[in-house]
Amino acid sequence: MKRLAAIAALASVATATACGSGTGTSTGTSAGTSDPSGGVYTTIDGSKQINASAPVNPFNPVGSVFAGYNGMTLAWPKNDPIDPNQFYPALASDWTATPDQSEVVIHLQPKARWSDGKPVTSEDVRVSIGLAYTQGGTAYALDPKAAGAAATIQVVDPRTIRITQGANKSGTFLSNLLSTVVVPAHVFGSLLPADFWHTLKVAQDGTGAAADRAKAVITGLAEKVIAFSPPRDVSAGPFVLERVNPGAALLKRNPYFYNSGLIGPDKVKVLNYTGNEQIWNYLIAGKLDNAPFTSVPTAVMDRIRETRGSQVIKGYSPVSTSMAFNQSRKPYDNVHVRRALAYLIDRNQVTRIASPEGGTAAATTSGIHAKAAKAWLGDGFGALDPYRFDPAKAAAELRAAGMTRKGDRWAMPDGTPWKVEIHVPASFSDWVSAAKSITSQLSDHGIDATVVTAADYTLYLGELAAGKYDVGFWLIGLGPSPYNIFQRLFGQANGWQMFGGHLKHVAPGAEGNWMGGPETVDGVNPGELTSRLQFASPDEQKRIVASLARVANEQLPVVQLWDYVNTQFVNTSRYTAFPPDDSDALRLSSGVWMQLGMIKKRQA
Amino acid sequence: MTRSRGGAVARRVAGHLIRGLVMVWVVATISFVIIREIPGNPVQGQYESLIQKGMSPEQAERATAVLYGFLPTGSLWDQYTGYLGSLLHFDLGRSLSTPGVEVTTLIGHAARWTVLPVLAGTLLSFLLGVTMGVYAAIKRSGKLGDLLALSGSLLHGVPVYVIGLLLTAIFTTLWPILPSGGPVDVEFVPGLNPGYVGSLLQHAVLPVVTYTLASYGGWILAMKSNVVAVLGDDFILAAELRGLKRGIVFRYLARNAILPLFTILALSIGMLFGGSIFIEEIFNYPGLGLLLVNSISSRDYALMGGTFLVITVGIIVANIAADLLYTAIDPRVRSGGSA
Asked: What is the pTM of this model?
């Protein structure tokens, strides 16, 4: 027995030693204790899996940098339904832009400092932009003709930087600039060669082999930048990484944060999760102060609500779910068939079953989330066909399409049986439930329908893009940028692609064109209009959005099923002052909420 | 005589090693081909996932481009020869899903989190199952024997994820005395301090118990069956007739009945490098099983291949070890089965 105890003790020691080399960046606090004044705020970052092997580097997609905590941008985007250029200040205290966004001047927070005490300067922003060029991106494209690419970056003074836009203007230039992640030049600066800015100029303004070589040099830096592992975290955010293990990251307060007085908690613990049920368990046990929304069965939701302090905050989320058609397949090439299906689907019932907490039934199909659609279209929104549940209209549409009735079942025009196969990825439980509800409804009205699941989302998207599905679920309405919204309906998935700065329509079934819609509809080229949204003035954007919404509503490349609701779980037992419902900050992390003066320790 | 026996052992070991190497090559080749035949577009998948998690299209596009900027290029044959060449240098490549990090580093980190729950669970279930198996066989006509056999059958039939979810529901929500996920509380400074070691053990309780319960049924049923078979052997009857003490008879019984289980135990220990996917997923335990699942969903070819290979090599080595161990502990095998 003694021997067994000794072996057990040795095993514990060996395990503790073996498992004790998580990335630590400081000496840390004494075990399990923290300053009781602000407490430890516990949350989950739904957009990232914690990876203890990854470096503390924001250019590494799994790096231990958490937006709003130890990761900072120049500004944080507001949840505005139509304007992508609405931001809260972050490291930039304020900014000005010319009306056409050809020039942007950014002023940095005067008191901003890194966690090692050094000031945040324009040089940090310049180096961060240089590093962003190695990764590519909308504002930092090496091709000067790319829409919305920056042309010059000029340090005006230690706290001011001026950036101009290239000739091919984009209305989201400001938005892309303000989203720039800022890293300390004294830590990351050595990644850029001494002649980097000269090389960049050659890459952008040069021609021929010299320009190609310069481009290759800059993109060749990408891997080095991603792999860079600073010895410790140097953050300009309200927190700095203390340590990370595969199950969680621990961040402690950055005493040099420019608005330190606004920050309530002393520490933040970001938990990793591998499945939704872990989040449910944490919420039921009251361990999380905030968690992103996950699909929750009703019984579990009831238990979460019963937990002391548990609350749900809801707000706008610019995403909708739709059922999309492959219009190169029969009978979905016929608009009457698509309309018939729209009339036969009771979207309220589908939403109630699939996403009762996280969605509202789509008012109609416009390609846009209802809230944004009302803002864009005004009275025009009411003029769209709502496609209310109407079996009689559906039957008329089917007959108009030449479909025939054989007994109590609908058949193809040539008399062969019509089998609707709705494809969804198995891992999206709300989509699976919705597809089952739809098949049941269709079956009740004489249409044979089945749900086919793909093993995972990657496989699903691959097969969808390859044109293997007749009907599949598809995310749409990705606002606030109108270009992004309609790109989902009239972009690459429907055949429109940019080749050398020119828009081209490829044939259905080729190069990712799985929607297979026609290039023009009644003289309107929806892909061309969508492309114009990138450069159009606000007034022109409104006109284009109205046209595209009408085309989407009449042609139904998709049937919009429900609009997502941003639903967040919070627990007010330890902290209060969470953002209210419909807050502009709802889609941002708790770290940003803290920067905005929210989240205070509950007083005993 | 000694020299010839030593030569035979050396030949046996060499034969095992050669067969093992061939198997590693075959498995490496098969896994290389299978991995590249997995359908799906990881780039698009990553983009869509990030959007659904609330990222703006621009952010998602940037993050996706960063992640998949270095997809494998070249012909399949070039990739294969490059892969084999790297393997010879123990270079499993760099991970796509954790850019900039060597696959060997990721596997090394995951392996240590697998070893604790799976090894502890395997050994605990073995000890428990073998002991209870002997009692179940001896008391097979009594209520205790029936009860033990029933417990084995029940637990053997219940899927591991059901046991895991059940334990989680009981001990983390209904009666919340244990942590529901993660390997250790990040608030503790890693090292040999009571808080850290305590947290480590506390977090390991549910995974270890789940693994133990899931494996226990197999051991008890196998051991019971072996003991019942040995009980009918002449040498047990002879021992009883000679009036040997119960303890000695029990030792004869257990030593002979346990022999076949050693092979399974060795293979189970080899299998532990595969982790236990369900247990690691349920308890957010970052071992090799979870690493493999994540590498498949992110189509991280290098990581997938590396993890497959480590699991395979673990099983092959365990197989060889079991064979050699069996030779050492069973005189009948040593003498060519003539005993």
From this structure: 0.83
